[in-house]
Amino acid sequence: MAVISATAVAAMTLTMASTAQAADSSTPPKKTGHATPAKRKHPLAIPAGDRDSVLGKDWKNSGDRAVTTAADSDGLHLLVADAKTGYHWKTATVLSEPQLPADTWIGNSCLMDDHHAAVVYAPRTFTNKPDLMMGGALTAVVDLDSGDVTKMPFTASLAYFDPTCNAQTHSAAFTALRADKTRLITVDTHGDSVADVTARGEITSAVPVEDGLIGAAGNRLVHISRKGKQATLTATKHAPYDITAGNDGTVDYIDRTGDTQARVQTYTHGTKTTVAHGRTTAMGLAQDTTGKVYLLGRATHDAAFGQSGITGKNVPHEAQLSTRGRLAVDPVVSDAVERGVANIKGVGKDLSHTAKEPATGQGAGSVSHLLNITATSTVTGQRTTLTADEPAATAGGTTSPALTGDSRPQMSTMSLMTTATDDPRAHDPVDTDAWCSVPRNDVDTQALQPTPNQVEWAVDMAVRGDLTSGYIRQGGWRTQTGLATINPQGTWPAPTLNGGGRIPAQVELGILAQESNLWQAESGAIPGQMGSPLASVDGYYGHQTGGSLADYWTIHWDLSDCGYGVGQVTDGMRKAGFEKDNETSLDPELQRAVALDYTMNIAASLHILADKWNEVHEADQTITVNNDDPAKPENWFTAVWNYNLGFNPKSKEAENGNWGLGWFNNPANPVYPADRDPFMDMDADPANWPWDAAHPQYWPYEEKVMGWAAWSIDTGHSYATSGRQDWPGESGYSSAGFYPAWWNTTAERTAIKPPLDTFCNAANNCDAANPPDCPDAGCYTQYWWNAANATWKDNCSSTCGNEKIKYATLISEPGRGYRLQYGTPQCGTGNLPSGAKIVASVPAGTPTWSDCGTTTTDGSFQFTFYPDPNATGPGLGQYDAKADLHQIGGGYQGHFWYAHTRDQAHLGGDGGRMTIQGDWKLPGAVPEEQAAVYVHIPDTGAQTTKAFYEIPTALGTAKVVVNQDANESNTWVYLGAFRFNDKAPEVRLSNTTYTGSGDDDIAWDAMAFVPGDYGIPNDYAVDLALPAYDSNSPNPNQAIQSPDDKATAALGKDASNPGPDGSLATSVSSQGLATWCDDGKIIARSTRTIACENRAVPYYYITSEGASGTIMFQIQRVLELDGTNSFTEHLSIAPDSVPLDIADVMLAINKHLCDTGCTPDEPGNSAWNGAPNWTPGDTHAANLTTTYTWDNSVADKEFLFHPDVQIDGDIYPSDNSIAPTHTGYQWSKSTVRKTDLDEIRCDTEITATGGCVFHNYAPTYTFNAAKYPQAAAHAWLIQHGSPKSPGLHSANTPLYYLPGGRNGANRAVICDVDGWARTNYDPAAMNSSTDAPNCDEFTFNASYNSGGQPAELDGLNPVSTGAECMQTYAQMDNGTVHLRNLPGTMPSFREVCGRSSISGVQNSGSMAAFSSGFAKNMRLMDRDAYWLDTNIKGACATGTGTFMHCTMTTN
């Protein structure tokens, strides 16, 4: 029988929310991008009215700033909130390296001063590898005001104390712990190195001071000079931690006095004083940026505390303190982590022996990127919870120089590579040169992703020796193994343990949770789907960390560990002839079975764990725990320790100088915080235990495994034993991965974590008061643990944990996952038109092992990869990008591929090493010579918002940009109809995008071609025949603006205007001011300077019998903006009729109203033109003019005014049948006619003397199309040929003014190639021989609609380059200038922008009036809306295809 063992690979964390997280370099397909935005449960800031009571009365001027971090799969979030804003939380940056594999990003931070933070960050899996945990994290300094990030060219540890800051010196110290030395780098707020020293031994908690550092060297408080010289300040009982240093030379720290107790001490100029004491898990020291020190939590103050200068605060001891100590922020847990851990909360709380299904939980739903932050005011003691909005784009994702190899704090880019088209490996997704036995990306080698129930069942069966063929569903996808019968424990019987007994199910499940998240297939596969077998990408390709980004992706086949599946089994998994030392390859069928079948993998992995137990239970090298009963999870502590780091056998004692378990995972190692609670213990820390999943670096490996065994793991999915998937919110939903072990009491469960001194005592020459401080690597061997027994539970038979078998009754294998909320394949053609020819992503006849059966295809699909030309040595692989490619059993017919988008800096780009191109192609031309094209987008694995599909047509290459994320729903998306002529229809898609950072998924699914006659001409897709230009055509008068009843607000604002009610008011008149308003229509209208509205206003009265009566008045109000600091209101009032029983009706102005800064000049009764009283039969109009003035005395001010008027009415009866009535009407109080068109904006910014406009009226800029037809036609083309229709009034899609256009930066994006216009112009189309071509971008540079305006600056149509726009040029053809698509390009008419090579005279002339007068005269301000009238129209040919052939004429 082959010996099965494994080496530990990067561990997996708690699966977040409803999607599984990556177990390798892939980011799993997510269903979040277009979900309904999450609603905030808490305010963004403390409400203004509550701030005095919550924060204390001096909050506003305190200068306090709170800073904290939150970890999730997007990166390490750094959040900032200032007291003056009521602690309105904002994201300063999100730190990540998207090209590195990470299921979750973790890290630590500290404050260098009020404006800068030092940060370490890394993938969570770094905590499983000692070298990465101790010195592999990335480092950065963040400007908290601007969000700028300086990434530094060195790495540091993830230890809880790293980095450590001193705000008095504006510096931070980073620590990298190596075998016998500690590198300590001190940096300033610019990220520049102040000192870089290497000290002997292990230095922890080092804080920078003016002349060096103060830290802990074992049980000593030491000073380390800038040259690395070490001097002892004072001795301590244990390694001091929470060290703070003041400018006066005072050092405060905590020193453990026992396993659970500690003392707070101060050291000043040679004198050490104890000032407080308490439990290690209840108190901590913190220092604000003024240097003041605080004792947080609960502690007993000793006599000297009052003179210590330390301030006690009864707040959570693990809280992060603000810069002035006024706010203590609880650890922040992201929504994804919160939802994940919530799903396991309470699982196993039933302490009885009866196994049962996990409890029903709440569904995760859509994952929110909002962060809820709870804090305590240290001034008032008030608790508050606030919400930070989802982060926008930040500077944190740019590549670290520690990865690029640059020695400076900056980012560098990678060189491009070239393809080797004659190498068959360049088109094969399989790594045929791999040393690992079972390939990735082989369509004939797919693993089933098991449900959590299937994994738990297999473990429950296997630990009892019952995982045999009779209980397993044979055939189907299992036939890929080549074995006639799958018989796991017929192949690998239940292992025998030295000393008897068997493995508890929860210990094996804890190992599987830590190693693989319970996955057998790659992370993108949802339980129930097929996918490539889970072969840790790092281990499969031999990727090495610590170098540049290019170094990381280099393939080292000779370093492949070849760990596969849920147990990450490695031994025997290399190809024959490529074995590791002392390894024998398994038979190929067994290798495939281990890689593809979770039951075979689990049976094999049990032998791994048993080997680790047996290794510490051999004669003369026994290392036991408690009573050594293998049924108790705690007693596997040393075996799991062995599982992660391996064992130094006694047989090599002479060679190594000692034997036993290594120091790194020793719980007493000071790189793990002494005050940590058990991993995932919701009882020990009810408020903050979910934070554990985001900070696994605080626990050694074996404590994490014990935590999973005791509290389980969230898998993000819920399944019944039948395989039916339960969806969030449904009855029975529970995403707990397995049932945890049980204890008799909660306290006994918490005690699964041993005391800190259990493995550091006289037995291994270790004094927990004096942790290793070694001058060389050999020194650490004396601390290896090899004592025959370690006990922390004397009555283990009753106080240790107990196995809980969920499947206590032997049953057949649980069902495969089905009824998937996301991930169910689409077997039919869906919404495709009839006659479609479909090209699948795999060859015909490929088994999908789904309900879709085997695939069919009408064409071929092929990948192209690009080699690393430097990878030519032995053991090196050339095609790096295959590591980033994944296959999933979803999408069309049950198979699609996905990778990640990349730009050149992330090794993408044309021919880049990480570039992947997919090509769908029919076998030949179609008789119709034309075809409509559709692409299938799966419902997972498609996150990019910019997938660039290239269609090589007979008229050029069309580029169609598809937002895969918005269409991630198993749907066909129309790309357009195109002419191919005698070319075989074809579509290409690359993972290269202009801003790809290796983060977003991009999918290759099926492509459909629907042949037909779409009326596409056989020449140009765009052909606009232009009229001859008229150099004498007068420019339009831009001051003449047509009235409009459309209220158009500035960008990001709202404005409305009710429509007409159908009645008329014909008896009132504007007296010639606004004749367009005298049609009587009941509606508000305006220009930029005149607003007019007609209303029918009822005045009510009551008869003596109690009945109501109505007199209808017609009222017209005209507002005229006719002065620099004044404007005028004109009222015209007339009744429809006055009833005979009314003697007289009198109206009067009660008063005019206006906003602050605006004063109405109230006219007297004599100012009326026509008396405001009426008798029966009298319908004359009464008119009144009122002037308003506003304060224009202060420069650069802006005001908004909504002038208003109250009109009172007195109704007098002709007899006693009616009582005299007093009534009234206020213009702005109407509930049916309230409008925003009459809101006035006045300012002294556009002109110093001031002026006013109706800012919700959008003015129109009109081209002189007769004089500048090329520019007019280009704008018309984009207005009518783009889905955004920018500036087109009839489409209600205004342009939004951006003063200055970012100083030309927007234009630089669109016209981004030097000489583009001259390269692509026709000299004959110029106005004259002196006319030069110009790149005309539309929409305009000075607009938020510009393609060059970034989304983070509120750009509406952001692109990365002008190549994404519709590209045209002016060409003379037989005496007529045409605007045509650029040769070699084919517009899709889905572009959001255009660039055209046209006459420079026409381009500049068309906009001359805009810059010289229009913007100023219309008083356009930032974000104001306006329209563009191109003053040209087209008579266009009809057809259903993708083309525009038009003859243009001027209006």
TrEMBL record:
Residues 392-405 have a biased composition (Low complexity). The keyword Signal applies. Residues 20-51, 379-409, 1032-1066 are annotated as: Disordered. Residues 932-994 form the Golvesin/Xly CBD-like domain. The keyword Signal applies. Residues 1-22 form the signal peptide. Residues 31-43 have a biased composition (Basic residues). It holds the Pfam family Golvesin_C. Keywords: Signal. Residues 1032-1041 have a biased composition (Polar residues). InterPro entries: CBD-like_Golvesin-Xly. This is Golvesin/Xly CBD-like domain-containing protein. It comes from Streptomyces afghaniensis 772.
